[in-house]
Design brief:
Order of helices and strands: HEHEEEEEHEH
Distance between the termini: 29 Å
Helix content: 10-25%
Shape: globular
Largest sheet: 5 strands, mixed
């Protein structure tokens, strides 16, 4: 599905239609590696995506053991090295803004465990319009409230 979506957007882009610069993906029972793979696909040099927010809710045997994963990343608009002649999908690298992992072993967090600070991530607003300049009068940053996102997941998922 992701590959088809990217192909569709690339076709539209070639016809002069703009590519979205922000992608928000929410999945149910999608593993962490899948979300990370989608992040890389959306933020590679072949797209115009500059901000990726991926969330997965993972239902388990009991509501207390349900987990969630969230990652926020941005396009690296100033990569340090020029890309190779045939850069592939992994160039340029993205900048990780936030990744919700519970511990050193990179396990997903339990949904009912409150987040420790910081619970808000600021994303530079110019990334939404990149490569065009930020329109006058808009804030320098937009904020993703992770604790609010976690609470909304709790509220909308039936017990």
């Amino acid at each position: 599905m992701i590959q088809e979506t990217i192909h569709l957007f690339q076709s539209l882009f070639q016809l002069g239609n703009p590519w979205p610069t922000v992608v928000v993906e929410v999945g149910v029972s999608e593993n962490t590696e899948s979300i990370r793979s989608h992040r890389q696909l959306y933020l590679n040099h072949l797209t115009g995506v500059n901000v990726y927010i991926g969330v997965s809710y993972n239902r388990n045997d009991t509501r207390v053991t349900d987990t969630w994963y969230c990652c926020i990343a941005t396009q690296d608009t100033t990569p340090p090295n020029p890309p190779p002649a045939n850069p592939g999908r992994d160039c340029p690298a993205f900048k990780s803004v936030y990744e919700s992992v519970a511990d050193d072993r990179k396990r997903d967090r339990k949904l009912h465990d409150a987040l420790s600070p910081p619970t808000r991530c600021q994303i530079e607003s110019p990334l939404i319009w990149h490569p065009k300049p930020l329109p006058a009068g808009l804030p320098e940053y937009f904020t993703v409230d992770l604790e609010n996102l976690r609470r909304r997941l709790i509220a909308v998922v039936p017990p």
